[in-house]
Amino acid sequence: MRRSTTARAGAGSIVDVPAPEAEAEQTVAPAPAAAPVAQRLRTEFPFELPRGYVDGSGTVHRDGVMRLATARDELIPLRDVRVQENPAYLSVVLLGRVITRLGALPSVHDGVVENMFASDLAFLQDFYRQVNAEGHTRAAVECPHCSEPFEVELGGSRLGES
């Protein structure tokens, strides 16, 4: 670090001029404060199945929680032999990874999702799209020709697509 240099101003007076490095050290920004609770990212979303999953003892499980998907959640199922043989199985494996709770079940996995009613599977596929597209699968756009606003559907035909 260099010390301040002196420069002569008019009438023989001497003025202290800080060195460039010293000035840079003085203008360090303060550390950012922790994000307020209201601004934290929501990563888990509760849901209720339309019919419910019926386990081996006949108990119906309807209330559950789904977490946000990661890139890994969408990539790992692509290596699964069942998905490679039948791409429609992707949604079953993917949902088995992101559903963290379903009723009183000790764990949720693709075997549970595989045995759900078709209406519950369709509900969860749509819910997955909503959760991972920031709450909806529609976007407001404007016609490039007439400038009229309208909405378009962004959801893909299968989970993991957009």
Plain-language structure description:
The protein has 6 helices and 7 strands, in the order E-E-H-E-E-H-H-H-E-H-H-E-E. The protein is of the alpha+beta class and 162 residues long. The strands form 3 sheets. The protein has a 3-stranded antiparallel sheet. Strands 1-2 form a two-stranded antiparallel sheet. It is globular and about 55 Å long. The two termini are 54 Å apart. 16% of the residues are buried.
What's the helix and strand layout?
Blueprint: E1 5-8, E2 14-17, H1 20-26, E3 44-54, E4 60-67, H2 71-75, H3 81-85, H4 90-98, E5 99-102, H5 110-114, H6 118-132, E6 138-142, E7 149-153
Antiparallel strand pairs: 1-2, 3-4, 4-5, 6-7
SS-derived structural category: alpha+beta
Tell how many strands the DSSP assignment holds. Answer: 7
Rg from Cα: 28 Å
The averaged pLDDT comes out at: 80
Strand order of the largest sheet: 3-4-5
Distance between the termini: 54 Å
Helix content: 25-40%
Shape: globular
